[in-house]
Amino acid sequence: MSEMLSRENKNLVIKFFVIITGIFLISGCSPTKYLQEGEYLLDKVELKCDNKDISDYDLEAALRQKANKKILGYSFYARVYNLVNPQKEEIREERRRKKEAEINERRKLKAKRPKEKFYLTRWIRQIGESPVVYSEELTQRSLRNIRSFLQTQSYYNNSVSYSVKNISKKRVILTYDIKTGPAYVIKEIVYDVLDPKVLEIIQSDTVNSLVRYNSKLNTNNLQSERERVLRLLRTKGYYYFNLNNIHYFVDTLNGHDNVKLTFTIRKEFGNDDITENTFTTQKINRVFIHSDYDLNLAITKNQEYFAMLDTIIVEGIQIIYRDKLRLKPNVLLQACFIKPGNLYNIEDIEKTHTHLSSLRQFKNINIVLRQPDDLVLNSLKEKNLDVYIYLTPLDKQNINFELEGNNTSGNIGMSGGISYLNRNIVKGAQIFNAKGNLSFQTMFVEDTIRRSYFFNTLEYGAELRLTIPRLLLPFSLSPEFIKRSYPRTNLFSTYSYQQRPDYTRSILNAGFGYSWKSGRNNYFTNNISPITINFVKIFDFNPIFLEQIKHLYIRYSYEDQLITSLNYSLVFSNQKLTKHEDFTYIWLNFESSGNVLSSVYKIAGIPKIDSTSYRFMGIEFSQFIKADLDFRRYNFIGESQQIVYRAYFGIGLPYGNSTKGLPFTKKYFIGGANDIRAWKVREVGPGSYFNPDRTFDQIADMKIMFNAEYRFPIFSYFKGALFLDAGNIWAVDKNDNRAEALFDLYRFYKEFALGTGIGTRIDLTFFVVRFDFGIPLYDPRFNEGERWFTAFKNFGFKQFTVNFGIGYPF
Predict the structure, then answer these.
(1) Which site among 152, 237, 274, 451 is 20 to 30 Å from 636 CA-CA?
(2) Exposed/middle/buried for residue 244 (C-beta within 10 Å: 0-12, 13-18, 19+)
(3) What are the structural domain ranges in the chain?
(4) If one looks up domain 283-393 in CATH, what number appears?
(5) C-alpha angle 547-553-554 in degrees, rounded to nearest 5
(6) pLDDT per residue as tens digits for the range 178-206
(7) 423 and 396 in contact (C-beta within 8 Å)?
(8) pTM above 0.85?
(9) Can 31-82+131-179 and 185-277 be said to share one CATH topology?
């Protein structure tokens, strides 16, 4: 990419930017077009703060008037709004109201609202955003809010002023000049806690305190510290302790910016009697699990319903059921952290709820704590809690029929299927799923090997899966590990028959594996498959396709394959679904194949066929190692915009028994809806290799890819995106004879395909429909010096690659 741009390419760059500029200029009317005399558009709000510890994001949250939203500095929304004359719309609306009033008067009853007209203009205005007219009143309110916010951050002697600058006849820039002044600093902390046990708990945990000596007097931190102490005490048995039992008192010391903080806890404020301010811990008295609770019957036929119930007691826990138990008692106890005789602990309640949810057996889970009714003395009632766990089960079995459109690596099609689900096949919360499917796709291939134009790919198959909520191992695991790690055993078997334009193949997969959570907050998910068998039978080749690959090394990838692999993957995600904050996703994957079989053959002394490789049932089994890394970072901008970055690296190395390279199913390709979106799937690479006659042989042993996407709202559930993708694949096996396909350390950086584009997403919450329009910027398939902006030489819609997808690309 370091080559100098030629004069022709420079002209193409200019042409590209002229086109983009023209699109922006015609996308809407000026935001100031309909402003009245004396009105000014608030073009920009600047925040100039002398303290780097105060973030602009927090200051912006205090503003009562902000400039119109922009896309890369462009007032897109205000311009779209003004495409329709707002004054004309207001006149139309006023006429409609008068007409409706006349109808109401004549008929003397509420008239049906007249059918609205001007749907197009109303729709356009919904997309846009009314131009923000500068308001002195809202500026004053913003000023007061900023001062209040700074006080919560310990800056009580702040100074905030503003200025308004005219940048044109109808536009202004509003600037807030913010001087925080010195922060109030905590120089002394005193714990005024009369209950000695509570005081001991708090002082023993000061290392986790959010309020410390020499820290700023931040009211947000004080509130967070109250909540932390509340949770701490509720993990130590204090069920009735609440936030109102915690107060702070602040005194200044030797100057206005030094303070003494008194942390006070009382059962009753205004009463300093120690006996009256001693808190009582609560123990779990009894635990009741209603395993198949029916709320409707419990309300409508209370006495009759509860008379039908039976109870068994296991490990001191009473399991209540009707007719017969749906789940084995040990399954329920494995998910229950609450034990009779234990101190109340809020974490036990939360973990119990989470583990019960992970069983995927219940549509409602409700955990209720009450004082025991059968205890006579109030003092005993105060010290004990009965726990009632109400579980409303899902239907045990389901049969579903599905008909859907799909998009696989840029190939569009439709599929139908039938699936059977049993959530509790042998009373151990095992989930069994059987599925059959039939699908058709339109695969974009060269005319020379196309067998039919539309729906030229047929696929049918079946799938069996069984998930068991524990690890099936020849040894026992500790109960603590089971409760902490959400273990699963997964067994599966799949068969697929695929009839493609270039060949037909059948694929049989079978294996089993384990998954469990680990790490603090269970951010890590571990998946290990000790053995997975993958058998691929390829036949019925298109003669033209065979002719095209017969002199290429990758022809071996299209032979029958037997893969016996061991796989381990680790997923890290610190996303918090309930919080709007940045997060990271990392996927690491390691796979090896053929080592066990190769060792068995060596130990058994079985000779290699033709002194080259071992065969199993006449097939050369694959032996390789493979590693993948997928890193993603999600950064939020304000409330509704986001920038997402992705970096991907993968490599596979054949060795030993694999004399013909990596299997086809384990090789990498690039391009398509979730990849480099300016090219169709398998249209780029490897390296700068280019075969104009076909695209199906664009597979290789290594892949590097980078993506960046800026996501922003348009209106309602419509969202937009601007993206930049870069990447390629390379051959690593030196036997690969495709020209310039091998990875070269001194050349590879010149072979990154670079594409950009725009997209729209229809976000329906439960799924996202996505359209992306990508165009190449740098195409390594061409000779050096001719790779930049080749798509713009004959610029038109045909130069864009249109991608359709379900869900976000990453």
Answers:
(1) 152
(2) exposed
(3) 31-82+131-179, 86-127, 185-277, 283-393
(4) 3.10.20.310
(5) 75
(6) 999 898 998 889 999 999 999 999 999 99
(7) yes
(8) no
(9) yes
